[in-house]
Amino acid sequence: MVPVSSEGRVSRYASRIYPRYIVIVMTVPLTLLGLLDREPSYGYDLKRDYDTYFGKGKPLPFGQVYSTLGRLARDGKVAAGPSEPGDGPDRKRYAITPLGRQEVEAWLAEPAAAEPFLQTVLFTKVVLALMLGRDAQRFLDVQRATHMRRMRELSEIKRDGALVDALLADHALFHLEADLRWIDVTTARLGALAETVRRA
Amino acid sequence: MTIDALPMAGPLLEARSVERSYGRTPALREASLSVTAGEVLAIMGPSGSGKSTLLHCLAGIFTPDAGEVWFDGRRLDTLGDARRSELRRTAFGFVFQFGQLVPELTAADNVALPLLLGRTGRRQAYRRAGDWLRRLELEDLAGRRTGELSGGQAQRVAVARALVTGPKVIFADEPTGALDSLTGEKVMELLVGLARQEGTTVIVVTHDARVAACADREVMVRDGRVTDPYAGEVLR
């Protein structure tokens, strides 16, 4: 249903305030690819690292790890080594391919769209960038600029729009502001965070 | 008195590799920034990053230890105190977080004050002060002492006082820092809206992203250095 303002005008919120409103799910395939960009790993080790940094309170099921690795292998982004005997069942070591590395590079370089509820994606990108020795500060700066640009658009909507638009824009503005605060705090602690994730 | 002139038309206001220290503590390190006429610029950064020091250097309140500040084709940092004071009175307006109004004087007195100091006739000064108080939706409070006004009302009086001389640049240092969200928003709307109508450049120092979002663009100050967050937007 399209909301109508008290002045009888059709609200623009659907098209201008939340144009790409989606529930952001953790980008598991890209995160696993990023972890593999550090070094080739077994599925078990990938799950352990994922749960340590990105799966707090919601560990990744083993089934999802192996099905994701299977799809990445099918798409040529990882290569599975031969079966190796271990303590338990045989296992395979997975390595990232040039295509997979290219995908991680592109994902880290691209600022996330400035929509509310992106915290987990921002966090994942910063930690992975530090793990892989990329310029996390630059990523945060670009993300900050992306957020500020969106906040300017929303402020303009508030100035020109009806009350319904203004209140919806406010909702988005406060969430983006929360992201920005997190970006600022993380920027200030980037050195310590780098030490933590590289030591692990 | 000789004043260096820029060889060609450039930005309205510019800092070139400005350095400033407090004792042994550097506040600004090779800070460079340029602002065009009519632009609304936000200077952001963490506490102690040097953003207010930069604003004070741009406004001629502080002189840099090194580097240059240019305003409207003239070198500002080499001017004597008297010329800089005159420039601040005639070409610049100021809005601070606290304390820029005289609490014993009325709102009209406070707004007329810069004009009276600039030797505008009393009658004309109060007429223009009245006009600006009206534009700031404060006409009913013209006769009230500013010490009796709410924080938001007092900041609107400060905005009227900053604009009454028809300045080329308004410098605002955390203008909404002491106000709640809604009141701060109203003050910023009026400040930026009226400045745009008048073609006045606004430089606002703020740590509040919602305030900065009212500007045309923002720069970040970190450890005394100015960074443009839009530089190198594509990371590849």
UniProtKB/TrEMBL annotation, chain B:
Q: Where is the ABC transporter domain?
A: 13-234
Q: Which Gene3D superfamilies match?
A: P-loop containing nucleotide triphosphate hydrolases (3.40.50.300)
Q: Which domain of life is it from?
A: Bacteria
Q: Which GO terms describe its molecular function?
A: ATP binding
ATP-binding as a keyword of this entry, yes or no, is yes
PANTHER family the record matches: ABC TRANSPORTER RELATED, IMPORT ATP-BINDING PROTEIN
**By its UniProt entry, which CDD domains does this protein fall under?**
ABC_MJ0796_LolCDE_FtsE
Q: What is this protein called?
A: ABC transporter ATP-binding protein
Keywords from the named record: ATP-binding, Nucleotide-binding, Transport
User: Lineage of the source organism?
Assistant: Bacteria, Bacillati, Actinomycetota, Actinomycetes, Streptosporangiales
